[in-house]
Automatic annotation (TrEMBL), chains A, B, C, D:
<dbReference type="GO" id="GO:0004359">
    <property type="term" value="F:glutaminase activity"/>
</dbReference>
<protein>
    <recommendedName>
        <fullName>Glutaminase</fullName>
        <ecNumber>3.5.1.2</ecNumber>
    </recommendedName>
</protein>
<keyword id="KW-0007">Acetylation</keyword>
<keyword id="KW-0378">Hydrolase</keyword>
<comment type="similarity">
    <text>Belongs to the glutaminase family.</text>
</comment>
<dbReference type="Pfam" id="PF04960">
    <property type="entry name" value="Glutaminase"/>
</dbReference>
<dbReference type="InterPro" id="IPR015868">
    <property type="entry name" value="Glutaminase"/>
</dbReference>
<feature type="binding site">
    <location>
        <position position="154"/>
    </location>
    <ligand>
        <name>substrate</name>
    </ligand>
</feature>
<feature type="binding site">
    <location>
        <position position="123"/>
    </location>
    <ligand>
        <name>substrate</name>
    </ligand>
</feature>
<feature type="binding site">
    <location>
        <position position="130"/>
    </location>
    <ligand>
        <name>substrate</name>
    </ligand>
</feature>
<feature type="binding site">
    <location>
        <position position="223"/>
    </location>
    <ligand>
        <name>substrate</name>
    </ligand>
</feature>
<feature type="binding site">
    <location>
        <position position="79"/>
    </location>
    <ligand>
        <name>substrate</name>
    </ligand>
</feature>
<feature type="binding site">
    <location>
        <position position="205"/>
    </location>
    <ligand>
        <name>substrate</name>
    </ligand>
</feature>
<comment type="subunit">
    <text>Homotetramer.</text>
</comment>
<feature type="binding site">
    <location>
        <position position="29"/>
    </location>
    <ligand>
        <name>substrate</name>
    </ligand>
</feature>
<dbReference type="InterPro" id="IPR012338">
    <property type="entry name" value="Beta-lactam/transpept-like"/>
</dbReference>
Length: 269, 269, 269, 269
């Protein structure tokens, strides 16, 4: 629990880091940012007919909101929404998890990135809640692929192992207003800004308001202890430290980002 | 419904505008931004023990969330939260609504600002829902003053009449990182940024995510048809047009702000 | 907490009892049965346009259900529903609490029954939750009288002091299919049966299913520790013991009724 | 939609009927009464550790209540609860649906009763919502068998075709305080009464209170248009008419039962 790393990738692709910044960890929910970007790159705004953009309120209400809103999840970063995004990526590409793995290898410049089979299998063993969400959305007609296939690709995506260095580099397109590492365009500037907006309002579970208040940057966290944050036009950061608060965000990671924006004044506000 | 005005106040206090930018309208919920600022100026962070900073999810859930979270409203911009903030301002100043009126007169440079008694009375006639919220919070011990007094000051604050010009000028401290029109400090830079963060995540009713996605600026709307938005370090805007969407935000006002950030590239993302 | 009394009133008006059966206690929610009967006696079925007949699910959901169902409480035995019934009795009689007191004096044959002013005042001091419910229903147009007046009469009704003897006698009309102690008709047989049905499905807070399962009799409990139960066509019982379970029902009282139906076989099932 | 049948089985096993009383229809949710009885016959009270006995409030809340109560359904007659009962019957017998079919053949005296494969298959094609419920409960550890197996047996049970005659006869043990058609004991008298209590408080979807109020008998309805009702100690009825109200209960069937209790005075109240 006392491990900590931080990496900063500037918009030219240079990455700097300290601490355990090259130690790989499980990206978990951070993968939701990349699957959303890949779907938006292929599909323009169509995904927003199937998933909303509003924060989700308390976790306690997630299921009732899904029912209340006819199977349309509130945003792409809660599990239900991420399943819809993965489902769409599967339809668009025929292999959602491999598509993401190849994208992350290219953007991070690390050809050794891989799925962690043990992690994916372990999640599958405890996947009843995600299966419940997927079947529930299917009952509203909001899934295009069979539930087991969607669940499987979702777990594989979450199981990818990356370091702070890898993630800061791979998230560079969010700071470069949509340009990939090789200078080609993944997303329109407008689209990249919009992913940042969704990260800021929905990226850190039920603590998005708290995170915006303290840190003031778009960010996406994962239960592996990683957090990716963006200073638009300047840099992408990734922090990692395994100890989580009760909402599922890295305690030391959030504190480091708070400190970072206080020192640099680089909060978006 | 075809009236429209927009005003921009730069950080030096110059205000420019077009259309009906000098026509007064009822500030309504925009007043919640000012009562929050006045409480934070006097009370540091204590208010956050009595009100949260998280978006509220669907309006449908507002009461159940209040019960679930023991009478602590999710944020200061839903009605329950604003009642708590007004209650605190009343305790701190002895006269919450007059304190706000004087502050708005000074910051806008318009000594003629006044309450609209007819509007305040009309709201009092239909105030059962706010009375319900206030009594409910009182049952959890989260009000310091008698319910009728809190409700009354809340309605007076909402009834203040201001134009786009007045509001853009009065909200200048949010773009100036806490400095008032006369150069004195109302809030620490950190505190002003944090109010901007709460505006971005919670300022436009149940459309905050949508608003961040399309406009990308901290903003607070009111059912009078006004919206105040902030470009930190640059300017404060106010748009006004009475036609509202189903969430209570000005349709033409939101479109104008969307257009503005697309043209200028001044989204915070 | 070790006090216990039980009384049985047969349909001829004879009352038998053991233990503390003549000790007065606060009737509290048991009064809801009598206010419902008095409204139905005057108003036929009109009250059912303003209050439902369905069990209310978890207490946690009570407010959200009230919102979901447009201010119409689920049944007359939850607080919101009882406030509507008292409001109607107030409209019909001009003095809801005095009307009930006189009725209870006549049916019990005890002219000394009285309000307990200290109890009523104490509830008024902590009445914020009931005030919240009343204002909330008023916001939906489901109250005919001013909130403070409805609340006051409601508290007075709850504060009446009666013994097991008094309550078993006063509830005799429920076993006599609507006939009062003097043989005159208060309710149609059909109406009396229907009050018994509402008691069985909704009369013991969130434990009505459990109570039907164990005891099998229509019953209404109060937080004063009393429970009135009905064996239709045979007798009315009242038990009293102050220790409550987590749902607000008398522990020893429920156990005594369970024992009674097991011994006699007089469950309605 | 203009078909109608009614059958009455007295406690000696004689069955009388009029109209379409010998036309088979799909038992659907009426099967939940029989699976509960079969589990209680084998398992005493253990099932109540895994399913509650309280009415469920609005259908809207069913999922949130399941979450709020840690995967324990409110009662055995909502779908979630029936899945738990079927799961337990599967564990106890190794073949839940065949066990029920054999039981129903014996009690009805009709050896031709059979599953309707087309109905079972059709439900499986649209079974996402039940799969969601089952996975959700599995995530709380409240299923003993694999989700697909539980779902399959549940659908088979619902698909059994029976007439009013068959169902009135098969439900005879509920009027005979637990004695089977051949005089042997299926359930203790206490247990049979308790199933009647659960039927009265929870047997007709979200209209149990309304049903108790109007009809005053323990009853269980199904979306096939059938309703089984019990006059304890006297007879078991079954009505059938396909037109359903918005809660899923047969309109003509409920009216017929209302008429029956008004004429006979055989309401339990």
């Amino acid at each position: 629990m006392d491990r900590f790393g931080i990496a900063v990738a500037d918009i030219n692709g240079e990455v700097y880091g300290v601490g355990d910044w090259e130690v790989p960890f499980s990206v978990q929910s951070i993968s939701k940012t990349f699957s959303l970007a890949l779907v938006m790159a292929n599909d323009n705004d169509d995904i927003w007919k199937r998933v909303g953009r509003e924060p989700s309120g308390t976790p306690f209400n997630s299921l009732v909101q899904l029912e209340w809103e006819n199977g349309v999840p509130r945003n792409p970063f809660i599990n239900a929404g991420a399943l819809v995004v993965t489902d769409r990526l599967q339809t668009l590409t025929g292999d959602a998890s491999t598509t993401m793995l190849h994208f992350l290898r290219e953007e991070s410049g690390n050809p050794d990135l891989a799925f962690d089979q043990a992690v994916a299998d372990s999640e599958a063993d405890h996947g009843d809640r995600n299966a419940a969400l997927a079947h529930f959305m299917a009952s509203f007609g909001n899934l295009e692929n069979p539930v087991p296939s969607v669940i499987e690709h979702y777990f594989w995506q979450c199981s990818i192992e990356m370091s702070c260095r890898d993630l800061a580099a791979a998230g560079g397109f969010l700071a470069r207003h949509g340009l990939r590492a090789d200078g080609s365009r993944l997303l329109e500037a407008r689209e990249a800004k919009r992913i940042n907006a969704v990260m800021l309002t929905c990226g850190t579970y039920d603590a998005a308001g708290e995170f915006a208040y303290r840190v003031g940057l778009p960010a996406k966290s994962g239960v592996g202890g990683g957090i990716v944050a963006v200073v638009p036009g300047r840099c992408t950061l990734c922090v990692w430290s395994p100890g989580l608060d009760r909402r599922g965000n890295s305690v030391a990671g959030a504190a480091a980002l708070d400190h970072f924006t206080t020192l640099t004044g680089w909060s978006v506000f």
